[in-house]
Design a protein that fits this description.
The protein is α+β, with helices and mostly antiparallel strands. 17% of the residues lie in helices and 38% in strands. Pfam families: PHTB1_N, PTHB1_GAE, PTHB1_hp, PTHB1_pf. It comes from Vulpes vulpes.
């Protein structure tokens, strides 16, 4: 708790479950009374616009009914509110409201009331602009040095600056390299816009450069811009601050100097007009908003910085002058003159707590009581200490050092993989060769101790392995209930998966007293699939292009014990060579040395070595664990096969490039194919048949080129060709009045 609390002058809570941000608060004489008294304008994301004029009877009073001048629902979310000279032909202040897809400018006026209810206020829409892009924020000022009016600049979510000269749209420009929009401010002294890009750089753009740059009809630069012959949008200066910015403010000392203040995530910076750092300050707490203003001392600046610790710090340059505590986390802070009280600090939280306060101290009335002095008896203290140590030692012996916590076994998930393949394969739509594709059944059991809601089971396997069903939903599970689901796994593609491990993930909600909707939780269970799902016994090969040798610290094990079912049992029960044939067609040979502690895996393709190597290591570890041997280890002493690995990457890259080229060529042929179809159908529907002018030959050639890149079941235009050939053979003269063919051409 801070000793210096903000003195509450007036406060209220806006709406229910509404949200606010830093652009939702503004202070100005919006009704043009001319008495110098500001009004508080607040807009919310729910679309409510409120205008307050606080008149507390005594300090700390809450809001009265007459304090709310106006409340109107604008339907669309309000992103930002600003007050300025936004209407042509007058220098009166008007209210600009920024929505996500619209900019509206209103005039606020009040009429004197004849009864005790007081004055009546209303807003009138002067004009609005419908935006083609989603807006993020806006700024205003006398762009280009205009006198007596303010122009508005809106930044969209895709980094476009849209300038509006009051009732008309001027131009739009894309900021170069924009990825995410940042805070935006306008400097009237240098006539430039200052923002912070997603590259964590403060960037300044001259208004004249924006006005004369190429129009932003397209996001991409034209070829003329790339060659440098066009007027490109060039940044005036940049400064890398190394962090994202929360807000930007520009404060002028006088007509000859101004400062750019940038609030970052951990620091705030003060920059000169040319982008040089005047000073910076590292913050101790995460900031939420700030407001710089001119100090009484000449040549210094004061800055109000709110943070997420409910504190408001006042800095004079880099020196902390005051710290005050707020009852909420401010997301926007302003200073104004309210009810003849100058320097009122107005803060707004994200949940709608609006407070007007001023700085001061409250006297602390708490006094610490006097401690009664007593004599210490050291002998009694020693006896008491020994008794406590004995109790602690007994507890540690019986229960351990750490307290035993209750295990949370709300749900247990177990998976059982069938050791044999299915008698009737569940494989459908496979893309493997002529081999019969086997499938394996997996059963997942859910056992819950408590009542669960919305339990959802999701099963994942590595492609090209696929599941007959991968999603299971249980709306409600009663206590002490067991559910079992079964599904099959099979190989769909013609290549090998990276691993044979599957994962069953269950997400569910556990009801509680505090949260009736339930606390979301996740539990998972992993399972291994058999090697016979993707591999069959094959003939061993003595020669191979790629070989890999694995060294172990134990005597070799019979491959028949490691891979039962992949070789017939021999007389001596020792099998030192075994062949594997993947369903895709490739072969791998595994050899075990009879004299040394080595295993060799060899294949014609380098990528096929991994799966058998991984399976060999896993099965060796399981074999020795069953024997009670815990110091088993595998090693590889040869050179790393990086050359083969890089060749595979290059080959994969070439396949990707060729695939993109084929897709482009196929798209071109498809466009050509449809164009020829339209011309042919026009000829066929014509009452007076005319020569095809080799359109049928061109259609056949285009179709054959498409068939070379993709598979068509049957030529869908054979009926059209046959019908047309019959017409030509029966009546060779094309000057007759023929009937239309009885075909439904719309289906083509």
């Amino acid at each position: 708790m801070s000793l210096f609390k903000a003195r509450d002058w007036w406060s209220t809570v806006l709406g229910e479950k509404e949200e606010f941000d830093q652009g939702c608060l503004c202070l100005a004489d919006v009704d043009n009374t001319g008495n110098g008294q500001d009004k508080i304008i607040v807009g919310s994301f729910m679309g409510y616009l409120r205008i307050f004029n606080p008149h507390p009877v005594k300090t700390g009073d809450g809001a009265q009914a007459e304090d709310l001048l106006l409340e109107v629902h604008l339907r669309d979310p309000i992103l930002q509110v600003e007050v300025g000279k936004f209407v042509s032909g007058t220098e009166m202040l008007h209210l600009a409201v920024l929505h996500s897809r619209k900019l509206c400018v209103y005039s606020v006026s009040g009429t004197l009331g004849n009864v005790e209810h007081g004055n009546q206020y209303q807003i009138k829409l002067m004009y609005e602009h419908n935006l083609q892009r989603t807006a993020c924020n806006m700024t205003y000022g006398s762009f280009g040095g205009v006198k007596g009016r303010d122009l508005i600049c809106i930044q969209s979510m895709d980094g476009m600056l849209m300038v509006f000269e009051q009732e008309s749209y001027a131009f739009g420009r894309f900021l170069p390299g924009s990825l995410l929009p940042g805070p935006l401010a306008y400097s009237s002294r240098t006539d430039s816009f200052i923002t912070v890009s997603s590259c964590q750089q403060v960037e300044s753009y001259k208004y004249q450069v924006l006005a004369f740059a190429t129009d932003a009809d397209k996001r991409q630069e034209t070829e003329q811009q790339k060659l440098g012959s066009g007027k490109r949008l060039v940044v005036d200066w940049t400064l890398n601050i190394g962090e994202q910015a929360l807000d930007i403010c520009i404060v002028s000392f006088n007509q000859s100097a101004s400062s750019v203040f940038v609030l970052g995530e951990r620091n705030f910076f003060c920059l000169k007009d040319n982008g040089q750092i005047r000073f910076m300050k590292k913050l101790d707490c995460s900031p939420s908003c700030f407001l710089p203003y001119c100090s009484v001392s000449e040549g210094t600046m004061n800055t109000l910085i709110g943070n997420h610790n409910n504190m408001l710090h006042i800095y004079q340059d880099v020196t902390l002058k005051w710290a005050t505590q707020l009852p909420h986390i401010p997301v926007a802070v302003r200073v104004g003159c309210l009810h003849d009280l100058k320097g009122v600090i107005v803060t707004l939280s994200d949940d709608g707590h609006l407070q007007c306060s001023y700085l001061g101290t409250d006297p602390s009335l708490f006094q610490a009581p006097k401690v009664e002095s007593r004599e210490l008896h050291y002998d009694e203290l020693d006896i008491e200490l020994k008794e406590l140590q004995k109790i602690i030692k007994d507890v540690n012996k019986s229960q351990g050092i750490w307290p035993v916590t209750e295990r949370e076994d709300d749900l247990k998930v177990s998976a059982i993989v069938s050791p044999n393949v299915d008698s009737v394969s569940q494989a459908t739509d496979v893309e493997v060769g002529i081999d019969l594709i086997p499938s394996v059944t997996v059963k997942v059991t859910l056992q819950n101790r408590l009542a669960l809601q919305k339990a959802k089971l999701s099963v994942y396997v590595q492609p090209p392995l696929v599941l007959t069903c991968d999603q299971f939903t249980f709306e409600f599970m009663a206590p002490e209930m067991s559910r079992t689901v079964a599904f099959s796994v099979y190989l769909k593609g013609s290549y090998t998966p990276p691993e044979l491990e599957g994962n069953a993930v269950v997400s569910y909600s556990r009801p509680s007293d505090r949260n009736p909707d339930g606390i979301p939780r996740v539990i998972q269970c992993k399972f291994r699939l058999p090697l016979k799902l993707i591999c069959l016994p094959g003939q061993p090969s003595k020669t191979a292009s790629h070989k890999l040798t694995i060294d172990t610290n134990k005597s070799p094990v019979s491959l028949l014990s490691l891979f039962p079912g992949f070789a017939s049992q021999s007389e001596d029960d020792q099998v030192n060579v075994m062949g594997f044939r993947f369903l895709g067609g490739s072969r791998v040979t595994l050899l075990a040395s009879k004299t040394s502690q080595r295993y060799r895996i060899q294949s014609e393709q380098f990528e096929d070595l991994w799966l058998i190597t991984n399976e060999l290591i896993i099965r060796l570890q399981e074999y020795f664990e069953k024997q009670g041997i815990k110091d088993f280890a595998c090693s590889f002493s040869g050179s790393m096969p990086l050359q083969e690995y890089f060749e595979l990457i290059d080959h994969h890259f070439e396949l990707r490039i060729n695939g993109e080229k084929l897709e482009e060529l196929l798209s071109e042929r498809a466009v050509q194919f449809r164009a020829i179809q339209r011309r042919l159908l026009t000829r066929f529907k014509d009452k007076t048949p005319a020569p095809l002018q080799h359109l049928d030959t061109l259609l056949d050639g285009t179709y054959k080129q498409k068939c070379s890149m993709e598979t068509f079941p049957v030529n869908p235009h054979q009926e059209i060709y046959a019908d047309y050939k019959v017409k030509r053979r029966v009546i060779p003269d094309f000057s007759f009045q023929a009937k239309r063919p009885k075909h439904n051409f719309s289906r083509y």
